[in-house]
Design goal:
Structural class: mainly alpha
Strand order of the largest sheet: 2-1-3
Helix content: 55-70%
Number of domains: 2
Low-confidence stretches: none
Number of helices: 10
Largest sheet: 3 strands, antiparallel
Number of strands: 3
Length: 246
């Protein structure tokens, strides 16, 4: 059951970053093809990284790579949030963003994907080692399904609740006077219909990233010894159908 808990909760720390960063960039006017350009140089990484990590993931402690990459990926989530925060300062008068901005994102995204691939490869390697070969791929499929589910439900959750962390004020046109709040779509329409401006006071994206980061750090502290223990369990003990001793 502890293994199930690990698989279902490990990716909560990355939910806000993975699920909302691109949406924030689009909201700031960054073109979708510009966002997609970050992945141009990932193919060499996908080829080279498994080869570089082969020795570590093929050994008796493949999850050591996971434990190394996990806090690194949390840090990259904070870096992403910082880049999103400073994105408006890169915007030119014509509404476009310079090539230097996209270059910064490519570098940051590249380092982020290194940690993401390390986590993925180490978990896949461990699942392959502990899966019972006597029942085919069913065991490994179950573990990978739980792992994928653990990456999907936090995204849905934080996409749903982030609006509750977001607060907007209706500002009188041409002044800095706050008339009222405009947190709901209806209130925003009422504000803008009278010529006033609905401005963001607190962006829920950054709060969500902060909450996920704190959860991730607590998760890492709690489950670190558990994950180390998983690697010390003899592989035969993970089998569903154990060999009979004579």
């Amino acid at each position: 059951m502890i293994m199930v808990a690990v698989l279902l909760t490990a990716k909560i720390a990355f939910a806000a970053t993975d699920g909302m960063t691109d949406l924030k960039l689009i909201g700031f006017g960054v073109k979708k093809d510009g966002i997609a350009s970050r992945a141009i140089f990932l193919t060499p990484l996908q080829i080279v990284l498994p080869w570089l990590l082969g020795k570590q993931t093929a050994g008796r402690r493949p999850l050591n790579v996971f434990l190394w990459a996990y806090p690194y990926r949390i840090v990259m989530g904070i870096v992403f949030a910082a880049l999103v925060y400073f994105t408006p300062s890169f915007r030119q008068d014509n509404g476009e963003y310079p090539y230097s901005y996209y270059l910064i994102w490519i570098v940051a995204y590249y380092f982020h994907q290194i940690s993401a691939y390390c986590i993925f490869l180490s978990m896949m390697a461990f699942n392959a080692q502990v899966s019972d070969p006597k029942i085919g791929g069913t065991y490994m499929t179950l573990l990978n399904t739980l792992n994928n589910l653990g990456g999907n439900w936090p995204l849905t959750l934080f996409l749903s609740i982030t609006d509750f962390f977001t607060f907007k004020n209706c500002i009188a046109k041409g002044t800095q006077t706050i008339l009222n709040t405009c947190n709901t779509k209806k209130d925003e329409e009422l504000c803008t219909s009278s010529g006033d401006v609905c401005e963001m006071a607190i962006d829920g994206y950054y709060i969500s990233v902060g909450v996920c980061t704190i959860i991730g750090l607590i998760w890492y502290r709690v489950f670190y010894p558990k994950i180390q223990y998983f690697q010390r369990i003899p592989r035969e003990e993970w089998r569903v159908i154990k060999n009979k001793r004579t």
